[in-house]
Specification:
- The structure holds 2 protein chains of 2 kinds.
- Chain A is built from 10 helices and no strands.
- The termini of chain A are far apart.
- Helix content of chain A is 66%, strand content 0%.
- Chain A has 2 domains: 8-91, Orthogonal Bundle (Rna Polymerase Sigma Factor, Chain: A), CATH 1.10.1740; 93-185, Orthogonal Bundle (Arc Repressor Mutant, subunit A).
- Chain A has helices spanning 10-18, 22-43, 47-63, 74-89, 93-97, 103-106, 121-131, 137-148, 153-160, 164-182.
- Chain A is mainly α.
- In chain B, strand 4 (205-213) and strand 5 (216-224) form a beta hairpin.
- Chain B starts with a helix and ends with a helix.
- Chain B has helices spanning 2-14, 23-58, 67-77, 80-98, 101-104, 108-127, 131-140, 236-245, and strands at 162-171, 174-178, 184-188, 205-213, 216-224.
- Chain B is elongated and about 100 Å long.
- Chain B contains 8 helices and 5 strands; from the N terminus they run H-H-H-H-H-H-H-E-E-E-E-E-H.
- By secondary structure, chain B is α+β, with helices and mostly antiparallel strands.
- A 5-stranded mixed barrel of chain B has the order 1-2-3-5-4.
- The chains are: A mainly alpha, B alpha+beta.
- Chains A and B meet through helix 2, helix 3, helix 9 and helix 10 of A and helix 1, helix 2 and helix 4 of B.
């Protein structure tokens, strides 16, 4: 019935919020809450901690909404806030500071492509569900953002503040590690 | 559950738990970030240009032309402290710039190299202005209370195995070297003295590298001196190769 009616984009809703329409922010929260809960549950163990963190993410997003550039996509912007919030809760901020000096960030080797043999995306999702907590955060996050949240490399680079080449490398290496984890002993 | 949470969120906002920050706040924040970069970059440029000025004005820029011992001496006299400070500032600046979206999506090395290029170019430009010379003059007159010590080692060197001055009374195996402050030294040279530019003439300004013994300088090498401020001696590498071939 609604097929002919186009939904307003996240960006146009964000502009409304910037103009002072608080109710419009509820629409954005409704769209992103399930996604952020899913993303947070892969990074944090405690369910109530994830719910509180997501609520905090929305409050922060509202506070900082005027810094959002409506020419850009809204999803990487709110995921950047979510990433910061989850990382802070996981007390892994210090590690992120060192990202600048990580060889993969400092000078990523271009041309590496994610390869996982014959495995299809659906199988990767299953494997991620099963083994995600055994992966190092630096590989876990790009894999989740790419295979579960469906972001493009460039958007992941925006969210994690790392070069696009580094995203490619981490996804490839993360998949290789995942492959090793699921190999029968 | 989700709808309840969304309602709760809107209530929290309406109750003032989160206040939307005005656009002016982010504009001011961007301006503050830019000022922070300018301050760090400016300090780095100042320190690097000071190192360039120090090497030029002391005559140490001539040292590589004296080959292995010249390079060793340059390493010993190099202004490592100011250069180290500049390097720390550069890395800090590169890290801060890398936090911005336009930089973070490219390898961090590119950010570091771009900043290095800008800082080094600006430092050479600043070293060619009379700024450091003026500060050095003020320091010598005691009018530079905090930075005065920094400039105390600048200017023509005395001792340290490197002597710069004008050639007078040129004779076989020796000549008199008159320095800027009219101190005169007797320079002794022989077949072992490195002499990359052939004969020298009276009245010529030269740099002599050698050991001071009994008021005589036993010269290891003699080179025409490129005047302070004109840059590093041209053909330094070529001179070294020539000397190695001798």
């Amino acid at each position: 019935m609604n097929s002919g009616i186009s939904q307003p984009s996240d960006e146009s809703i964000a502009i409304e919020v910037q103009k002072g329409n608080v109710e419009a922010f509820g629409l954005l929260a409704g769209r992103y809450r399930p996604k952020l809960l899913r993303y947070g549950s892969k990074l944090l163990f405690n369910k109530s901690e994830v719910e509180d963190a997501v609520q905090e993410i929305f409050l922060r997003a509202y506070q900082y909404i005027q810094s959002f550039d409506a020419k850009q996509k809204f999803s990487p912007w709110i995921y950047r806030i979510a990433h910061n919030q989850f990382i802070n809760l996981g007390k892994k901020r210090a590690r992120e500071l060192l990202d600048f000096f990580d060889p993969e960030t400092f000078f990523p080797h271009f041309g590496m492509r994610p390869a996982f043999g014959e495995k299809a995306d659906g199988q990767i999702k299953e494997l991620l569900d099963e083994f995600v907590n055994k992966l190092d955060l630096k590989y876990k996050e790009p894999l989740l953002l790419y295979h579960i949240e469906g972001f493009a490399y460039k958007e992941i680079a925006q969210i994690l503040k790392i070069p696009t080449g580094t995203v490619s490398i981490r996804i490839a290496r993360g998949l290789a590690k995942l492959k090793n984890l699921c190999r029968p002993v | 559950m989700t709808a309840e949470q969304d309602q709760k969120l809107l209530q929290q906002i309406q109750n003032g738990k989160a206040k939307m920050l005005p656009k002016a706040f982010f504009t001011a924040k961007s301006a503050a970030t830019f000022l922070e970069w300018a301050l760090l970059g400016g300090l780095a440029i100042f320190f690097v240009s000071f190192a360039i000025f120090y090497i030029r004005s002391s005559g140490y820029a001539m040292l590589p032309a004296f080959g292995y011992w010249g390079n060793r001496a340059l390493m010993a006299y190099f202004p490592w402290l100011t250069s180290g400070l500049a390097l720390i500032l550069l890395i800090l600046l590169a890290y801060l710039v890398f936090q911005k979206n336009f930089a973070s999506q490219k390898p961090a090395l590119y950010t570091l190299l771009a900043i290095l290029l800008i800082v080094i170019s600006a430092s050479f430009a600043l070293a060619n202005t009379p700024l450091h010379q003026g500060l050095q003059n003020s320091a010598q007159k005691g009018r530079l209370p905090l930075m005065g010590r920094m400039y105390s080692g600048t200017g023509f060197v005395r001792g340290h195995n490197l002597f710069i001055g004008t050639v007078k009374n040129l004779r076989t195996g020796q000549f008199e070297l008159v320095q800027e402050d009219n101190t005169a030294w007797n320079v002794l040279f022989n077949n072992n003295t490195r002499w990359p530019h052939g004969n020298i003439q009276e009245g010529q300004v030269v740099a002599v590298m050698g050991a001071l013994r009994n008021d005589n300088i036993e010269a290891w090498g003699i080179n025409p001196y490129a005047l302070a401020g004109t840059g590093f001696p041209r053909g330094g590498m070529r001179m070294r190769w020539q000397m190695m071939g001798q």
